[in-house]
Design goal:
Chains A, B: InterPro entries: ArsR-like_HTH, HTH_ArsR_DNA-bd_dom, HTH_MetalResp_TranReg, WH-like_DNA-bd_sf, WH_DNA-bd_sf. The structure is a homodimer. By secondary structure, the first copy, chain A, is α+β, with helices and mostly antiparallel strands. The first copy, chain A, has 5 helices and 3 strands. The first copy, chain A, is elongated, with a radius of gyration of 22 Å.
Chain lengths: 124, 124
Amino acid sequence: MSTATANPADGTCTAPAADTCCVPSPGEAILNAEEAELLALRFKALSDPNRLRILSIVSSSESAETCVCDLSEPLGLKQPTVSHHLKILVDAGILHREKRGVWAYFSVVPGALESLGASLAPKP
Amino acid sequence: MSTATANPADGTCTAPAADTCCVPSPGEAILNAEEAELLALRFKALSDPNRLRILSIVSSSESAETCVCDLSEPLGLKQPTVSHHLKILVDAGILHREKRGVWAYFSVVPGALESLGASLAPKP
DNA sequence: TCAAAACATCGATAATCGTCGATGTCTATT
DNA sequence: AATAGACATCGACGATTATCGATGTTTTGA
């Protein structure tokens, strides 16, 4: 199971067996599709400049809480757009939403960013 | 500069000044647009399930090096697609490409993922 | 010199995403 | 009850993205 013909569907990559290419890696330790999908969803939440700035503002706020109207102006985005980004961050488990009266306050979920960062570590 | 009328462009959010909303945060420590754009670009490289699996395969490879033909089969993707994903990861500074003969070998840039993960830490 | 193989690049297509105006929902105030 | 304001949701539009077939480039082996 270690020699050549890695992609029979293409008929290509039938390595000359002499040189060492196409050693299909350990086999088991590979991130499976479902896990990858879940992880990608969380990174996708961080893949937009405005969402990163939202996180920066929320986490650096004195009260560690921010309402939507605090974000619209410094980002130069309209309210529906800000709400949309906030929803993505909440769905990703990164932000926490708490409705108090008319306002909605957002805060960073404790440990959320750290655990995401930890998934980039060399070896678990 | 701490009271109300956060979004004059909309005419909205003229807070009643009695309750505490719309305190526009510290002011200086906010991630600026250029930095956010750059960070987002790197996270965007991690925001695709197949790219995460590519990283998983490359980093768990025995020789810490992988060629394209090793990736096409386990991911179920055609060669041009794999090449496309690899280019994105290389451009983001996460993977290193080395051409040896006919094959191209990829390896994780040392410290690249760690430094990205560190940008998610509580306080710099 | 020629053929074959690995990989990159191009062009096209379907899907997803960011943005915003319009509208709906809910709450507090009058 | 009615109004006003904060926020969420909807629908639309332009831009970006993932995927793949076709093709180009480069290197090895005959």
